[in-house]
Design brief:
The protein has 15 helices and 12 strands. It has helices at residues 2-12, 14-19, 34-48, 59-67, 82-88, 118-125, 135-138, 161-173, 175-180, 197-207, 217-222, 242-249, 288-304, 306-311, 319-332, and strands spanning 24-29, 51-56, 73-76, 90-105, 152-156, 193-195, 211-216, 226-227, 230-231, 237-238, 276-284, 315-316.
Length: 334
């Protein structure tokens, strides 16, 4: 309720704040970090009177809008390669780390009780495993009453960085997935119901018995959904919690030279959660004045927003990564 009021208040004050000369920056993109950006923006407005208008439209939409210069900044959970950044004349930097869970709605199976091997997750989303009591699921879940019911797969219908990170993970754990679907913001799904945004997928899972889908952890927590236990890259069972997200994040090897281009899924380590992902901001190289205003907002978030990130289930960037990002800003936004 607080976040809804915060967002409403933020939107309602845009026109009023503009009368007093407050900065206003428009951004659009990933739904994955939207809860975090909304609360950061609310606090920023309260402390500085400056306004951040962020539209949660998916990473694909954010990339399109910043490439065509419709907004001041874009947001994507898929890091763009140095080649793509150069072609679009964009800058890129990470601002936070989040995680993706495989959420499900099966009565009688509680959160963090159902074990799904990485290969089994891939086969479910590829339409090869279609029943909740399939032998491949039952083998790792002795003592759990698995219903003889069809699995209802739910996936994103829009271009999505969450989808990119999830399908990247599936491509790494399943040759069948890699050969037939690949890793992308949009894939040709074999089965399932499509929905827009993390919000849409969450809503369908919550309302649909025997469903399963992939969503950002904060959406799972806010809606009291259940999530599966997954496997690390080394095959250890691991739950979705802060300690295991941080265990994965510490293996990130970002550099300023390639604009922080890296995918974090399936990092090494026996406690590294396999579906950890960074979220990135994209800026047009030529718009120095608005870039400085956008950077001022993210400097505020870096300096004062770590507690908010933790509260909402995200991982703040380590201080050494923040230092690299600040050096990147200094070199590219003069």
């Amino acid at each position: 309720m607080f976040k809804k009021l915060a967002i409403t208040a933020l939107v309602a004050t845009i026109s009023v704040g503009s009368l007093f000369g407050a900065d206003k920056i428009n951004g659009a993109g990933a739904t994955f970090p939207a809860p975090l950006y909304y609360e950061w923006a609310f606090n920023y407005k309260k402390d500085t009177q400056n306004l951040i208008n962020y539209q949660s439209i998916g990473s694909g939409g954010g990339i399109k809008q910043i490439t065509s210069r419709v907004v001041d900044f874009g947001a994507s959970d898929e890091a763009l390669s140095p080649k793509k950044l150069e072609e679009a004349k964009l800058l890129q930097f990470p601002v936070a780390i989040g995680s993706i869970v495989v959420a499900f709605n099966v009565a009688g199976i509680a959160d963090e009780k159902l074990k799904l091997k990485n290969s089994v997750v891939a086969d479910i989303f590829a339409g090869k495993i279609t029943s909740w009591n399939d032998a491949a699921i039952a083998a790792d879940n002795k003592g759990i009453n698995l219903p003889n019911q069809k699995i209802i797969v739910v996936h994103r219908a829009d271009g999505s960085g969450t989808t990119f990170n999830f399908t990247y993970y599936l491509s790494k754990v399943s040759k069948n997935w890699s050969d037939n679907f690949g890793a992308s913001k949009s894939v040709d799904w074999a089965v399932g119901i499509g929905a827009k945004g993390n919000e849409g997928v969450t809503s369908i899972i919550k309302q649909t018995p025997f469903s399963i889908g992939y969503i950002e952890t904060e959406y799972k927590e806010k809606n009291n959904l259940s999530a599966a236990i997954l496997q690390t890259a080394s095959g250890k069972w691991v739950v979705a919690n802060e300690a295991n997200f941080k265990a994965a994040a510490k293996y990130a090897t970002w550099t300023k030279e390639d604009s922080f281009f890296e995918v974090l899924a399936l990092e090494k380590g026996d406690t590294s959660y396999p579906l950890v992902a960074a979220t990135f901001i994209l800026l047009p190289k030529e718009k120095l004045d608005t870039n400085k205003k956008t950077v001022a907002f993210y400097e505020y978030a870096f300096s004062k927003g770590d507690a908010t990130a933790k509260k909402l289930g995200y991982i703040a960037l380590p201080e050494d990564v923040k230092k690299m990002v600040r050096e990147y800003w200094a070199a590219n936004i003069k």
